Amino acid sequence: MPIESVAIIGAGMAGLTAALAFAHHGIACDIFEEAAALIEVGAGLQISPNASHVLSELGVLPALEAVWTEPERIALVSGTSLRPLAHVPAGRFARERWGAPYGVLHRATLQKALLEAVEQSPLCKIHLDTPVRKDPHGTLAGITGRTYPLIVGADGVWSNLRADMPDSPQPDFSRNVAWRFTIPGSARPDWLAADQVTAFLGPSTHVVAYPLKEIDGFNVVAIASGISPGKTWDAQASDAQRRMLLGQFHRWDRRIIQLIERAEQPTFWPLYQVGAGRWHNGRDRVLIGDAAHAMMPFAAQGASMAIEDAFVLANRVAGPLSLTQALADFESERTRRIAKVRARGLFNRFAYHARGPIRLGRDIVLSLRPPQSLAADFDWLYGFKAR
Fold it and tell me: Which cofactor does it need (predicted)?
């Protein structure tokens, strides 16, 4: 028999999606968020068809489609010459091949759409400025006077709930950071296509750029080696840190270097990974999203995997199995999926950052692959229908 209520720790994308997914099954949700206000840091986000399928099932997609951009293609471009190497078609092609759209948008846009849907649900209630750290059952009972048969940890890579769970995975700094800045549409250089996601590939680092309709501009992210500034998503760069970043692009095309040099108020955040471990305690607690499996962004699937997690967890818990078995099935199913996505990310990292003869071989192989053939490589990822 399905449970009647759930406590969700964290009101980010994973937590809000989980609340909607549980409410979809008639399960009431209390969401507990440590922040006093939901202010989303960061800028751009890619939502691939496997995630937009879930958002469609939960009724959130129309609000996003009204404001996001559906790029015509995902292009791979040489960072040292700006020569196009290959592309995967998106736009209408994505809808036809994978049954759902591929969109790019501001993080705040997705959070706002999810939050509005949660606030409109009579089964969901958000508690802001409410940290839940040690002894989650006791803490929650003290806040609401209720006990919950299930507590979902959706509180990110530095999860408090995970820290209180035996044999849980641990976060580890990857020694890489993601630099982020935006440029206005009026400042877009001719070589930066306005209708696509562009991944510029170069020695030991890469840059991704795509349009953001909400700001009439572009989101630019550079992945490079760096030192962790601590638990933050919005570190301000010192002059020395900017020089360190630019030093890693000395072999790149001068036009990209100038774009980075002219960046106004760039910020960066450390890229942490969460390794292997238990996602649930076998009884009444479970982790989803970055709390369970934070990964490097080389497959652009961090948000999408959190959205999938939330939907699959609610479906399993609302099914006919006992809660213990539902949690075990969820972990088994999702760890296999995450492992495959991680493997794709590792492959992309190797290919994107290749140097010397390997880079030349990569460029030749990519140039020989037609777009339809490259798209077929993503059927298992983008065509996945979470259930």
Answer: FAD
